[in-house]
């Protein structure tokens, strides 16, 4: 009997997305005004008919657990579930997950009881829309033990990805993890018999997307060792000893594991024709249904921007920005190139009066504040007359207390306070 388990790798500490991961797991980072990163792979699984899903994580998992518990419900007939498997001590294993493969290995005791026929391995920090069922069908039809999803990339993009060489039968013959800019990889160029429409755009190499289909027996065999990482060790070791196939994906795919890529992927959603489209009714991206009221715009100007539910925006100018759920923007504020994640709650009149007594700003964007080129995390308090990133000077990365600069992007952390008149 066929039984497929989907496993979303939640990653480690998420250092490349710090400070957004300071108090939450990487898959729980808010995205696109109302979603979380983990909603992308989970929705791809659900839309493809795979509804038995595990999320593997070990750092700051409280907010992730709360999100999943409030979002994904399945009826008793579908036998579907979305469950977190955080690192735990057992009589067999007492340490942390040491890598992507090690995380799966340490959870075999949970997986084996379900007697799966196949495993689908997905990453928790990528933006894409894929029919995983098509990949699974081609995996079964090919007779491969492992199938690796891959996409065409440029030579520059290949530096930080695992690249592979495949023949006309789609069999992977060689794999190289993160070759860097100096390595000669001309031999890895896509062969003419595998060329697709992306070749003409300078995308001459096939890169692993970190998405795999394993036969259950192959997974057991591949992890019967001390290897800790799929890309660096498991896949290269399997090539030559078992049949490993490539599944070429031609759609949009973006690794959003860094602050810069996260910021750019969010702002791309505000473009007239975004590369990733949330507006597909046949394959929706699911998230927590909060039952918030519609957003209200009072005498405001919004251009090429997105606003989540429950926002109140008054006499403000907003362009090329994302305004997250429950964001309160006061009169005279101006946002340009801002990713604002919103708030977890509304402040009451009593709380706002207490804020005034304590001389701290309310949650949201205060009167007359101007912000440009920044990420504003949840529950941040931006006081009146603040100036954030309005100069075009080169910014030096670092931790500056109530804000960070990462990859040249200003990041206002969760729950941060910028007092009235602050200039960054």
Produce a short descriptive summary.
The chain is an alpha/beta fold and 424 residues long. The chain is built from ten helices and 29 strands.
Tell me the count of domains.
Answer: 2
Query: What structural class do helix, strand and pairing data support?
Result: alpha/beta
State the low-pLDDT regions, or none.
none
CATH topology of the largest domain: Spore Coat Polysaccharide Biosynthesis Protein SpsA, Chain A
Could you state the CATH homologous superfamily of the largest domain? Spore Coat Polysaccharide Biosynthesis Protein SpsA, Chain A
What share of the residues does DSSP label as strand, in percent?
25-35%
| Total beta strands | 29
The CATH class label of the largest domain is Alpha Beta
Q: In angstroms, what is the radius of gyration?
A: 23 Å
CATH architecture of the largest domain: Alpha-Beta Complex
Main sheet properties: 10 strands, mixed
Mean pLDDT: 91
The termini sit apart by 60 Å
* Overall form: globular
What is the topology?
Blueprint: E1 4-9, E2 30-31, E3 35-36, H1 39-47, E4 52-57, H2 62-71, E5 81-86, H3 100-105, H4 108-111, E6 118-123, E7 126-128, H5 132-142, E8 146-153, H6 155-158, E9 162-166, E10 172-177, E11 205-215, H7 216-222, H8 230-238, E12 244-248, E13 253-255, H9 259-268, E14 296-298, E15 301-303, E16 306-307, E17 312-314, E18 317-319, E19 322-323, E20 328-329, E21 334-340, H10 349-358, E22 364-365, E23 370-376, E24 381-382, E25 387-388, E26 398-399, E27 404-406, E28 409-412, E29 417-418
Parallel strand pairs: 1-4, 1-6, 4-5, 8-12, 14-17, 15-18, 16-19, 17-20, 18-21, 19-21, 21-23, 22-24, 23-25, 23-28, 24-29
Antiparallel strand pairs: 2-3, 6-11, 7-13, 8-11, 9-10, 9-11, 26-27, 27-28
